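WARN no homologs supplied; continuing
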Amino acid sequence: MQYDFGTIDPQPTTGTQLAALLGAFRDAVNSLHKGVSRPSYAVDGMMWVKETVPNPTLMMFDGTDDRPLATITDQGCVAVNADKLDGLQSNQLMRSDINTIFSGLMLARRPADEQIRFGDSLNLRPLISFYNLLERKGFIQSREDEMRIAVVTESEEKLLQLKDNGEILWDGKIVRVAGADGAGSDIDADLLDGQHGAYYRNVSNFNAGTLAIARLPVASAVEAQVGSSASKLMTPQRTEEAISALSFGRSTTLVDETANRFSGTNYQNTLDRPLGIALTDLLDNSSATSFLVGPDPANYVRVAQTGEFGAYIQCAFAIVPPDYWYRLDGGTAGSWVEYT
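OK structure emitted
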């Protein structure tokens, strides 16, 4: 309801009359001055409810005109769907969902058959497309790890890819790598100084220079000693190391085993190279003294022997292969030295 009690004159107005006036205005305020038209007593900034069909409208008086704020429905207040925004119709504005519609086109030139389209949908990525007679001739697209530029010809689409890591690809082939300069650039060229790769893989075409040892398959010290590789080379250094390790060389040590070796006892060479044994002062007045070597104690071969009744100093020297066994039979040795 609406009510305007005008100007109250306190002289003729009784308390009962004043209460009635205030009660009527209270009801007008509580009902937001509801009526079919703006209250006659409306002032700038006043809100009131306009009785419209099917739902009332909340209005605000700006001192000149009434501005609709919302429509009051059973579900609550619904914002007003204005006819214009800042004086412009909706078809004059760029929509936020432009990537899903083919509107909002920008012309590259005046002719309508040449267009640039922003937000053309392709894999939901930012895209600028170029059209001629409604046929796409190319596009520029930003992706997570690259920028794509496509050129469409009559028969195919060529793609230039500018990647975040510095690579540049044309039609799927690398044309530049970040920091690319020579070896390790990952560029697959057709020719190098006018020659195909097969030319440089043919050793017969090498006519100068020295091939670095690092380029050759050289056996390690262990491989040279155990003979575990048939496809690697032996340098003079590796050869000397192997000979020294597998036979008598600079690393040979002389060990006096006189106190540890006894006649009639079996011993085994547990080294990975031959063992040299030198015996001196072989004495026996009753029988010949023999030094035996074999793959096992049951298959000995006599490699040295002194004469019977040799009451005089005699010597013997034997070489025992790796893992072979050895033993002195008869007599005693005044000196037993092993070359380990």
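The radius of gyration is 55 Å.
OK
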